[in-house]
Structure formats: C-alpha cells, structure tokens
Amino acid sequence: MRETLLLTDDEVKQILEMPRVLDAVEEAFREKGLGRVQMPPKVYIFYNKYEGDLRVMPSYLEGLDISAVKVVNVHPRNASMYGLPTVMAVVLLVDPKSGFPISIMSGSWLTAMRTGAAGGVAAKYLARKDSEVLAFVGAGTQAKTQLIALKHTLRNIKVINVYDVVESSSKSFANHAVELIDGATVNVCRTPREAVEGADIVVTTTPSRQPVVMSSWIKPGVHINCIGADAPGKEELDPEILVKAKVVVDDMEQAIHSGEVNVPIAKGVFRKEQIYGELGEIVAGLKRGRDSRDEITIFTSTGLAIQDAVTAWLTYNEARSRGLGKLIRLVC
Ligand SMILES: NC(=O)c1ccc[n+]([C@@H]2O[C@H](COP(=O)([O-])OP(=O)(O)OC[C@H]3O[C@@H](n4cnc5c(N)ncnc54)[C@H](O)[C@@H]3O)[C@@H](O)[C@H]2O)c1
After folding, report:
1. How far is the CA of 320 from the centre of ligand 1 (A)?
2. Nearest residue to 115 via CA among 212, 22, 249
C-alpha cells in the first residue's frame, strides 16, 4: 500500500535544525552551480486588490534525485488584517521515479528556515570572517531565521542592531536575539540609519518598494543579505550600493525579474552585466567569493525552489525515522 505523509507546521518546526538545513541548502546551491538542477523560474499570480501574490515553485535536483513543488503566498498586510503570517506555504514532495506524492507538508516554517540558510551560506562565502556587528532592517519572520543561520556561520557576533517600522516587531526580534546569541549587545534602533551605520553585515527583510538602506550609511567591507525583494517592483537598497558592490544573485533569471536588482535594471541605473554571478557558482568553486577586506558584497535572494526541495526531503526523512506525521492513502 502506498501512502503519503502529511506534516503540519508544528511537526516541521520540531524537526528542522539550522545546521542541517545549512548543509542541505549549501549542497543545493552547489548542485545548481554544477548545472545539475531543473528549476523553471517561479510563476506568479498577483492579487493586486489585496496587496498579495501567489507563487508556484517546482524543481528537480537530478544528482540528488529530489523533486518538489512549493505553493507560497506573500501578503504583507496579513498580520494586521487577519492575524495570519505574511508568508504561508505548502510543499509537495514527489518521487521522481514514479511521480508518486511522497509527502505534503506545511512549508511556512520550512520557507523561513531555508531562506535563513541561504543567507547563512552567502555570508560564509561573502562576508568577512571577523564580522562582529550585525544590522537588521525589518524584524519579522525571515529576520529571525536569518539571525539563527548567521549564529552558525559567524564565530563572534558582538552587536546586533535592529530597526523595524513597527516598534513591537523590533522588540520581539531583540528578545529573540538576546536569547539566541549569548553575550551580544542588542540595540533597538529608531532609524534604519542608526542600525546600519558601522555594521559589518546588513540584513534586509522588508516588503519595501523603495530603498530603505542608503549608500552613505554603509562602510567598506560590509556584506549585505537582501532578502525582502522577491517580486517585481520590490527593492530595499539605494541602487548606488549595487553599483559599487560585488553583486551575487541566487538565480540570474529570477533575480533580474524580481530580485533586488529588478527595479534598478528597469530604471536603467544598473545593468544585468554588472551582476558578478550566482551563489551556486561560488559554492561550486567556479567563481571566487570575497576578494578583499574592503570589498562591499551583496547577496540578493529571491528564494529558490531547490532550497525548498532539499529542506522538504530532510524533513520527510527525519519525520519517517521519528514516526512523526500522518500517513494517508491519498492517490491510487
Ligand atoms: N528571498 C526569499 O527567499 C524570501 C523568502 C520569504 C520571504 N521573503 C520576503 O521577505 C520579506 C519579509 O517576509 P517576512 O515573512 O519576514 O514578513 P513579516 O511580515 O514577518 O516581516 C516583515 C517586517 O518588515 C517590516 N517593515 C515593513 N516595511 C519596512 C520598512 N520600510 N523598514 C523597516 N521595516 C519594515 C514589517 O513591519 C515587518 O515586521 C517579504 O518581502 C517576503 O516576500 C523572501
């Protein structure tokens, strides 16, 4: 009898630990760098009258024989209007041999963890190893998992600055940071400038459609993880920063369509030829990561379906070995 494993968000939360997600996501980027994945760009539906969208994200990692499809929304007004998270998702894990649906799992926490892991992998290859001061602009769900990943990537986090337009979100993030990073000084800032000035690593996780971090605030040698811009029209950085930085994307096509570079390219103030390369190429050893202490590096993440697939595979195997979830006879 063939059964499909159902996993709730709580069960996924019990299972996923950042070090293993970091390893899985790094491997997924390597596979992409080596050209061993099938991953058509995300397909979007825009619910303009509700300020939200829906994306479908299929992928197949041929070398690892892992395949999945994620359906995910982004509705930034959800918390205030409906008491729901901005991002919710469902992942369908498929057996490539037969197409059988092995598992259907909540992808909400999974998305936050795999997005955090992408930021962690980017920092591993692009940030200065001695980075000590972190700045977070935007302090919601993604910001929290970005910090969890950086905790496992950096040796010595000393200061964490946070700014969010909603002060209670900054405070909730600050509590999370105090619990997570022993001995770090955590500052709730009144402006994004106060958070960013003097930082070694800047992490942006807002749904903004205009720059929230300005070029004059950042110092040489900074690494920036831009996570929020993942749909056309979204941007978080002053384009002047892109011009003077080594810009690394997760996927060339998705980034040009919907990543941090999409608005500057559309406006003609940045050219796609100025993009240095994809993170997978660096992880696979085909391109260099950081070249000098003073170089400004940017990772712009749109979020890849292969990150979801490997994280779902990890979740499924761990759930089976722990006896978690509910098996149902869904098809056949
Ligand atoms: N790159 C990826 O793989 C990926 C994955 C998931 C989500 N995202 C994107 O990341 C963003 C955040 O997602 P989330 O799940 O953390 O949402 P969230 O609603 O939990 O958090 C977003 C936070 O940003 C704050 N904010 C909004 N505008 C701001 C501004 N101008 N300055 C400072 N703070 C501001 C909000 O108050 C909120 O606290 C969204 O744009 C989402 O589409 C990207």
Report:
1. 33
2. 22
